[in-house]
Amino acid sequence: MLQVVIVLLLIVSAVVALVLQVRHDSTQEARNRSLAVAETFAHAPGTREALSSPHPTLVLQPQAEAARKQSHVDFIVVMNTDGIRYTHPKPDRIGKKFVGNTAPVLAGHSITEEINGTIGPLVQATVPVKAPDGKVVGMVSAGITTANVGGVADRQLPLLLGAAAAALALATGGTALVSRRLLRQTHGLGPYEMTRMYEHHDAVLHAVREGVIIAGGEGRLLLANDEAQRLLDLPADAEGRHVLELGLETDTAELLASGRVATDEVHLVGDRLLAINQRPTDLQGGPPGSVATLRDSTELRALSGRAEVARERLKLLYDIGVGVGTSLDVTRTAETLAEVAVPRFADFVTVDLADAVLNGEEPDGVTELRRTACSGIRKDAPLYPVGEKIRFVASTPQARSLRTGEAVVEPDLEGAPGWLAQDLERTTQVVEYGIHSLITVPLRVGPLVMGVVNFWRSRKPEPFDEEELALAEELVARAAVSIDNARRYTREHTMAVTLQRSLLPRNLPEQSALDIAYRYLPAQAGVGGDWFDVLPLSGARVAVVVGDVVGHGLHAAATMGRLRTAVHNFSALDLPPDEIIGLLDELVGRIDQDEASADSSAAITGATCLYAVYDPASRLCTVARAGHPPPALVRPDGSVEFPDVPAGPPLGLGGLPFETAELKLEEGSRLVLYTDGLVEDRERDIDEGLELLRAALTGVDRSPEDTCQAVLDALLPARPSDDIALLVAGTRTLGAEHIAEWQVPSEPAAVGEVRASVTRQLAEWGLDDMAFTTELILSELVTNAIRYGSGTIQVRVLRDRSLICEVSDNSSTSPRLRYAATTDEGGRGLFLVAQLAERWGTRYTPAGKVIWAEQPLP
């Protein structure tokens, strides 16, 4: 309360002084401004001339009022030497006598005074207006009323009072906070209570089982509790003496005398290890000196050492559990086990597995192992190298482990005849190298023994003990589960890859329309459902197809096989690409229905497909696709484009039609088909992949084989997450010299002309030996077209890898093969064609149908 009163008095004094000062400054400012305005107006151009004019008021009154408003004074009065006003803010005062002292002004001097004028109390300044010869011809007075002078102070007074109130509040709050802090620090205790508290603290200080020493700034011992005296064996008169004179160990005495910061520094004092913590007492303005605590850590050190070993072993077990199971590769899992255990548990670790385990199978009676992994602190250890087959003799620890399924520790290899008998030369080298102790643990999951893990020690002179044997068994038990999982995955992966490879084409069929090169790369994570195919069609045409079943594993591979088989069957019908895709769409829909009815949780099959048919005679390529990436076309000049082929929905959605696109391909063009695994992965989207594919394909004079390699070099990721199928087809054409065509009228007599024309054409091609059978085939086909067909009949003969005869008409009715009875007069024509030709069939066109037959060339 005293401090609040003092602050309040100071504030009142400051406010009064400040108000008086403001009023004084405001009055002085008013006097200065009045004088400045009066002098400025008196010396203004035209003022002196206006005084001598016939009507001064008319000239000076407007000017005086304008100047008054701009200069923020209350009046500007111009008068003659008699004191009669020519101007005034109140026009009724013009012509009346000026109120004020004018004698000094008429004498040529300026005057400033405070008077009670016609508009009230005011401060005014009067100055003379002089002629060029110095004679006073008039006077100018300017002034500010006292009300306006005091208004400045009145306007500033609320601010001053507010600041004073804030200062008072801050002072009061600060005083309250300081008081509360003092009460909190002393817990509200008075002198008596503080004395009692000191006595209690002193008793506690001497009762704790931790030494406490307080030293002054000059290094003298000020206080040592009972525990400190016991731990340091201090003399009875130690307090008050210098620390260096107490007979302590040199390093301990220097630490206590220096006063430096120390944290858990361990010092040997007698037969005790003392952990010393020391802090200076003057860090926050306290007296100079230091406080040190001493703790006997002799037993604690031993306990902490054992705890640290246990912690390291738990950490090793954790790392084995986390690190070893990250790979589904048997070899990599074994290598990880060896790498994690070195050097934290052993100096060298070797893993020996049966070949059956490496292949994903269950070993049947392990007698021979292969060194799968080896890791050590050095690379020149004379142990069996990785990859070598090892047959352990019956006396070795490894053979005993495999036979009994129990871990074996060999503490002294030099004195272990059973182990030395394995290979006398090599085991001698191992002992001379410095390896002296061994733990062998079988890799076992249930009754299945897959191999052994060997832990070798060389640096530490102590042999492996029983605790370390138990740890080794735990390490291997955790790793064995991961190795068995990797083995099972390897088996399933091998089965899936085998199935997938068996479903893909092993050799491409022979054909002359396209020069084909391909690549198929399965994903690292597992087999998928990508496939491709090349299918020869009638009329020297070739179909190329690329597809992709979503997902990985056996289900995707099996679905791929079903779709590939379906494509083979549908292509035999010689249907357009859009109809082939439509049939595949229906098939995938039925597969989904069958699987859904068998298993309600079965996933919907997702698949895409691109089907293209190339005709070397017309150079037309008809393409249809269902949700598949578009093909790339490399022109003979090296330019690359992605033709606009209608995408269509993925297979299995149903209900939407598929469209085709016709491409006119020049000879030497390259048609590139691929799956999305080539152009899309986690790190890039499909647009970026297509641009990379365009850049890799750009260029002339490349064979399809070189194109495949260039594309994979540019786009193949390090670890493909999806299958990649790539097919490059270089186009060829069937020239006019290999094609013969005739228009045949729908008359029976035209059959003979056709036979004669074909005979001449075959003679030109050097195929006279095929004339008879070809005439017979064409005569039967043309006769059928004349009898059962309609419109113009077209005959075309192609010389390719085989001799192809084609007869087309405008009818959509297809002939069928049947066995004629002995009494039938007809019905044997197609039977003869089927017997003479290697293949025959019918394909439909927008204008009708084509019946064709192929004969092998001699």
Looking at this protein, list some descriptive labels.
858 residues; alpha+beta; Beta-Lactamase; six-stranded antiparallel β-sheet; five-stranded antiparallel β-sheet; 23 helices; 41% helix; GAF-like_dom_sf; membrane
CATH T-level fold name of the largest domain: Phosphatase 2c, domain 1
**Could you tell me the strand content as a percent range?**
15-25%
Radius of gyration: 56 Å
Spans of at least 5 consecutive residues with low confidence: none
What is the CATH top level name of the largest domain? Alpha Beta
Proportion in helices:
40-55%
Average pLDDT confidence is 84
The CATH homologous superfamily of the largest domain is named PPM-type phosphatase domain
What is the number of helices?
Answer: 23
Write down how many β-strands occur, each being a DSSP E stretch of 2 or more residues.
Answer: 30
| Distance N to C terminus | 130 Å
Count of spatially separate domains: 5
Coarse morphology: flat
Estimated structural class: alpha+beta
- Side by side, the strands of the main sheet go 12-11-10-15-14-13
So what's the oligomer here? Answer: single chain
Largest sheet: 6 strands, antiparallel
> Which second-level CATH architecture of the largest domain applies?
4-Layer Sandwich
